[in-house]
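Quarterly update from the structural biology core.
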Amino acid sequence: MKKVRVSNIKIEGKFDFGDESSIYKLKEKEKLYKEWLVRKIDDEKSLGIISNKVKKLEVLETKQTIFKYMVKPSELIEDSYYYTGYTLEHYDGDKLERFLNYKETVKLLRKIREAILELENNGIMYFDLNETNILYKKINGEIDFRIIDIDNSKVEEREMDYLPPFIRKYMVNGGSLDKNALIYAYNHLTVSLLGRFDSRLTPYPNIGNYNRKIAKFAELADRPKADSIIDNEYLIDYYDENQIFKSPLL
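Predicted structure, tokenized:
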């Protein structure tokens, strides 16, 4: 990857932040700067995390076909002795909040499944599927999206740097960072998004619409058990985009 001195980038203002980083707008409008918070050069663990991220980004850059699903990294940013972060494509989309209707949500979830399976075929496993790591927008009536937290992927033999709480729960309960964990992570996101419309996925389901299999997905989303329905089947396969829910949560 191309390397640029941190003194040579022009920051316009803060854009967003996360557990591992702060993200800044650049005067170069099509790019953002992601600055890693772990930057203690005298800390061996911090250096290891940064080194792992850098090597993953260098591998990701070579896999051009993945950037229809993930934002594209641009340059590694360096200071005197270490890398501070990287610049990336500015994908001008919305977070997965409350702007999508049920039909759009089902369509988007199917596209996300297609994406994580295609990424896996390219040696990339993305487990941190949550509403803040995916941006979407509508283009000519179709929903487009990008995964934005790309440096926390598992890339070939390089592991994730930060495990989200729901993945840590899964691993404590017998899981490993493999294909089953990927299915679980996807189902966790599915329960979160479809729970806005389907009361069966909420803590207080509509008993009249009770479905044992749907209820099991909902139960295991936050209390996962390895080698169960939550990490072997896809919840989205039990939904039709043309369904109508009588008691949506929104």
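Helices lie at 44-61, 102-121, 165-172, 179-194, 212-222.
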